[in-house]
Amino acid sequence: MQNLFRKRKKNNIFKIVTIAFSFLLLILTLNYYVNYKYSKITSEFYSEFNNCNFTDAKSLIDSDNIYLKLKKKTLNNDLNTYFSGIVNNICDTLSEDDENKDKALIVLNEIKSYDILNSSINKLIISLDESYEPEDSSDYEALLSLGLDNCDSGNFETALNFLKKIPADSDYSEKANEYIEKCISNYKESIFNEADELANNDYYTKAINLLNNIDTSIVSKDDSDIQNKITSIAEAKESYLASLSSSDSTQNSTSTSSELLNSITSSNINTLNLESLTSNLIYVSLADQITYVYKGSMNKWDKIKSFTCSTGIDGENTPTGVYDVRERGDWFFSDKYNQGGKYWVQFYGDYLFHSVPYNEDQSEVVDNTLGTPASHGCIRLKTEDAKWLYDNIEAGTKVIIK
């Protein structure tokens, strides 16, 4: 009897083990099959999506498929990884070629429809699509984030474009206005710092021009802070010019003597005790129609440039004497003579170094004459030579014209 009981017990254990093993084998088989079917469906999805067959791709995912339901969490993770890779590739491509923007937006909007990447994809779409109109709180949050990011990066106009898209009646309006004020303040601070740097290096006209040509999409030209800054730099400019005149008149009274003007040549420049407020000196020979540029100090002047020039014609002669460089600009136009000049550098009143004359739209040289008197009193140079003076000769540089 005991043997029979033991035999039955062994049979029961064997059956249990067999059933358990069979069940495990079934589970493994089903799992393998589910994974196989899942892999096949997702591979087809990736292929269709990569080929921009978006409708077919979505039908594979949206179908009431038992295998996708069983792998829902895995599917979300895989789509997140897949779409993130596409977005990264798009960002890399756009940084090299903005012409792909329209194509990129189509792909990004398709990715957005899967509701996988959420705010990150929304932010990217808004940043690329200039015509995008915000619809909900997620859009407003993206606009605020983009506005602040661009403001902190110094892209003030872009920042304001994002922030101003937030409706005044939205819950985000107050925060948007706060960021707008910050953006305007940062822009003015940036402009003022640049203007101060120019003024500190005696480029007062450039500083004033910078302030007069602010981005009016950000700040009004009539902004009181801008106007006060212009006034401040203009006053500093006047003081500087007055100090130059005073210094020049007391520095070397013999420099302006007729004896000096009669004796100076390009070969005896280092025998006349000539000084300049800068490390450069300019001598213009009316007889040779050449502008000489020197670098160094008193009686140690080294000639570094010789520019063929054209000075004033009879009746509109270039004044002789000793002067100093004052202001400069990149363009002027004279209605009286119907011509203008590039890269002007002032040395006395309305008398300037500047390029050969151009027409009003700066597209054509109207007179290429150099090497013989041809101007109305200014000193004309090749355009590249005028630009060199404009870029390299500081205010206060002595100019001697004989």
Structural account:
The protein is α+β, with helices and mostly antiparallel strands and 402 residues long. The chain has three domains: 2-69, no CATH class; 184-248; 253-401, L,D-transpeptidase catalytic domain-like (Beta Barrel), CATH 2.40.440.10. Helix content is 53%, strand content 13%. It contains 13 helices and nine strands. Strands 4-9-1-2-3-8-7-6-5 form a nine-stranded mixed beta sheet. A hairpin with a 4-residue loop joins β1 (280-285) and β2. The longest helix is centred in the N-terminal third of the chain and has 49 residues, at 2-50. The chain is elongated, with a radius of gyration of 39 Å. The termini are far apart.
Summarize the structure.
The protein has 13 helices and nine strands. With about 400 residues, the chain is α+β, with helices and mostly antiparallel strands. The radius of gyration is 39 Å and the shape is elongated.
